[in-house]
Design brief:
Blueprint: E1 8-24, H1 26-30, E2 38-39, E3 46-60, E4 69-82, E5 85-95, H2 98-108, E6 112-114, E7 116-122, E8 125-132, E9 137-145, H3 157-162, E10 166-170, E11 176-182, E12 189-198, H4 200-203, E13 214-226, E14 229-230
Parallel strand pairs: 5-6, 5-10
Antiparallel strand pairs: 1-3, 1-13, 2-4, 3-4, 4-5, 7-8, 8-9, 9-12, 10-11, 11-13, 11-14, 12-13
Length: 231
């Protein structure tokens, strides 16, 4: 949650969300982390996630109240802790808005990249395609919900993967930076997914994923992200 002293940076809705996660050896992830950051694990395993969704009603708080916009995003993430504070570390983030990429890189030094993205929803089925030719980062797949909505139990893997209230990234100079996140608990559903191509993890500098992914769907949550700060 945002502290009383932390100002809001942007408010938005994260909608039509796919969570796809693969288990990794924690040592492989730790090698990629900056000094002062520790890989977080669940029952001895680290996880790399690919998460696609629509960012809707995006409202940077410096804009007039009625100004908002929408865009799709897909990101590659893992889970870490800094001084005992757990969070999400974004390894790469892709969107089709060049202006948003320039803004995120210039003002917040986050690893945003422009990608050609197609996101279409037909009934309960969502088709998501992201292609960035510069580094051969490609994701193609389709997904849908396959169960009733449920709330993850605190001790479950589903809770561990999704209930994160701080984001981390590494600035170009190696500094750790963070922003706190406020949202209600994710409403989750089992997901039916057909991943046709996924080179995003390889493009992020890790070994390509192996085995079957852990899959979840969510209709979404409303999010309030605090100002990005140097640690």
């Amino acid at each position: 949650m945002l502290s009383k002293s932390q100002k809001s940076l942007v408010k938005m809705k994260w909608e039509n969300v796919l969570f796809a996660h693969w288990a990794y050896d924690p040592r492989i992830i730790q090698e990629k982390l900056p000094k002062g950051m520790k890989v977080d694990t669940y029952k001895g395993k680290a996880y790399i996630g690919v998460v696609s969704f629509l960012m809707n009603e995006i409202h940077p708080t410096i804009f007039p109240e009625k100004v908002s916009f929408s865009m799709p995003e897909i990101n590659v993430r893992t889970y870490v802790e800094v001084d005992g504070k757990k969070g999400v570390l974004f390894l790469s983030l892709y969107t089709d808005s060049k202006i948003s990429v320039l803004g995120a890189n210039a003002f917040f030094d986050m690893p945003y990249f422009h990608s050609d993205i197609t996101m279409k929803r037909e009934g309960d089925l969502t088709y998501f395609e992201s292609i960035r030719k510069a580094n051969q980062a490609v994701f193609k797949g389709e997904y849908s919900s396959k169960s009733d909505v449920f709330a993850a139990r605190e001790e479950s893997l589903e809770y561990w993967l999704t209930e994160r209230y701080r984001l981390y990234s590494t600035a170009k100079n190696g500094d750790i930076q963070y922003g706190d996140i406020k949202h209600e608990q994710w409403p989750l559903q089992q997901a039916g997914v057909n991943i046709k191509e996924n080179s995003l993890i390889l493009a992020a500098g890790l070994l390509s994923q192996k085995g079957e992914p852990h899959l979840l769907y969510s209709p979404g949550v409303t999010v309030d992200i605090g100002m990005i700060q140097k640690y």
